[in-house]
Design a protein that fits this description.
By secondary structure, this protein is mainly α. The chain is built from 14 helices and no strands. The mean pLDDT is about 80. It starts with a helix and ends with a helix.
């Protein structure tokens, strides 16, 4: 095995192949490498090395990690000013902890940047976790195409789980209703949504069309 500090240095190499090799070595080292990777991911210097550290942590065996990643570390990483870092932290939380930390992600959703919001909504939708309806119809979420798709996915989970209803969407003020319908329109090819449309009112179907 290479010295752990040498592995960390490889994550900062200018050559992608060297960085990837360092990431793979860190993954193989497992939990013994975790404290150094957690520190490297927090260090604001060298954003690419931070990403490789996050990816290495996410690719380790989850059972080795769940009791060793402090919640305070995750809180700080979700608030990181480098939005790509905060988004990849949501991927890590989803991959390692699954639905166990749903509440942590929900707590950060109201004030999240668009990038972090995309990460949180995507992670929660992948876990089939329901996001509060009021968080999905904010008129400040409609500009980024990727974020629109993530919001559509979260709305779809909310509807198919029974936590939300078409009546709630139809009862929204016009701007929010138009937003919700537009986002759900992105899911119109999904067979489950089509089954909802079969029994929906003509207004709902026209709005999505």
């Amino acid at each position: 095995w290479k010295d752990p500090l040498d592995i960390l240095a490889m994550l900062e190499a200018p050559q992608p192949v060297v960085r990837l090799m360092g990431q793979r070595l860190a993954e193989r080292a497992g939990a013994s490498m975790l404290p150094l990777l957690l520190q490297r991911a927090q260090n604001p210097d060298h954003a690419v090395a931070r990403l490789h550290a996050l990816w290495a942590i996410g690719n380790m065996t989850p059972r080795e990690l769940s009791h060793q990643i402090p919640k305070e570390w995750m809180e700080q990483m979700l608030k990181d000013p480098q939005h790509g870092i905060s988004q990849h932290t949501t991927d890590l939380i989803h991959k390692v902890f699954g639905p166990d930390l749903t509440q942590l992600l929900l707590e950060h959703l109201p004030e999240a940047s668009p990038t972090l919001r995309y990460g949180i909504l995507t992670a929660l939708a992948n876990q089939h976790q329901v996001v509060p309806f009021k968080e999905l119809v904010k008129d400040d979420t409609s500009h980024d195409p990727a974020l629109k798709h993530a919001t559509a996915g979260a709305l779809f989970v909310s509807l198919t789980s029974g936590e939300s209803s078409w009546e709630q969407i139809e009862g929204l003020p016009p701007p929010e209703k138009q937003l919700a319908m537009g986002e759900l329109g992105l899911k119109v090819l999904d067979e489950l949504l089509v089954s909802y449309l079969d029994s929906a009112s003509i207004d709902v179907r026209l709005a999505i069309a």
